[in-house]
Specification:
Radius of gyration: 25 Å
Number of helices: 9
Order of helices and strands: HEEEEEHHHHEHHEEHH
Distance between the termini: 56 Å
Largest sheet: 8 strands, mixed
Strand content: 25-35%
Structural class: alpha+beta
Strand order of the largest sheet: 5-4-3-2-1-8-6-7
Oligomer: single chain
Helix content: 40-55%
Length: about 240
């Protein structure tokens, strides 16, 4: 009896730990921050999650930086030294894989012929995907749910001033008309100033945004979309024709 109670106790502890981890993943906010200065050609985008245990940073000022930090470990994807190490590792894995295939088949394969047989051209694939999107009414199903999702993850703080103008005044007007349909732009402190009289296209100014999202919102969005029969049929058609 004591053994059974001990096993049940262990199972209960494991379930509590799993529930706590799931709650942390789903309900701990993913915080993001965006800072743009067009005149100085500077942009930065930062994300942190799980109380800064997981951090992502992209920054461009004279040169680009793309850094992922997990606990105390940092991975700079644009660092030349690290890129060279990753390239050598990929080449070593590819050579070992090719050697293994050659040993099993007992003949030497032509890698160029394999690349040709892998998949059709990009343009042909894109046309096929677009036709399937239209056939299964993917946009009509996904866009309303996408709007709800984007509203939930919208920036809670958005400020700045952007001035722009195009050579064609009608194009400038169309851009302003499109922005006016997005509530996030005119319900914040971000000011967009169009110039209809400019003779040269330009854009200048600064912008700052900060907000957060919950992973549960992404799960709700994905589940809501995947529950639709036409979306499942679309995914099946992609797999069958891939």
């Amino acid at each position: 009896m004591l053994i059974v109670l001990s096993v049940l106790k262990i199972i209960g502890i494991v379930l509590i730990v799993l529930a706590a981890v799931a709650a942390a993943v789903l309900f701990c906010p993913v915080r993001y921050e965006f800072d743009l200065d067009i005149d100085r050609r500077r942009v930065s985008f930062r994300i942190n999650w799980l109380l800064h245990l997981l951090r992502f940073r992209f920054q461009y000022e004279e040169k680009a930086q793309l850094v992922l930090s997990v606990l105390f470990f940092q991975f700079d994807f644009l660092d030349e030294e690290q890129k060279e190490k990753r390239r050598k590792k990929r080449e070593a894995r590819a050579s070992r894989k090719a050697a293994g295939k050659k040993k099993r088949s007992g003949r030497e394969d032509d890698p160029s012929s394999d690349k040709k047989k892998k998949r059709p051209g990009f343009l042909r694939s894109a046309v096929r995907v677009i036709s399937l999107v239209r056939q299964y009414d993917v946009l009509e199903t996904a866009v309303p749910r996408l709007r709800v999702f984007l509203f939930r993850i919208r920036p809670r703080k958005l400020r700045g001033r952007i001035e722009f103008g195009l050579e064609d005044p009608s194009a400038t007007g169309r851009i302003i008309g499109g922005l006016s349909l997005i509530p996030v732009f005119y319900q914040t402190d971000l000011r967009v100033q169009p110039d209809f009289e400019t003779e040269e296209s330009f854009v200048r100014g600064t912008a700052y945004a900060r907000g957060h999202m919950l992973m549960i919102h992404a799960v709700i969005f994905l589940v809501g979309v995947l529950r639709q029969k036409n979306i499942r049929q679309f995914i099946g058609a992609l797999r069958n024709r891939g």
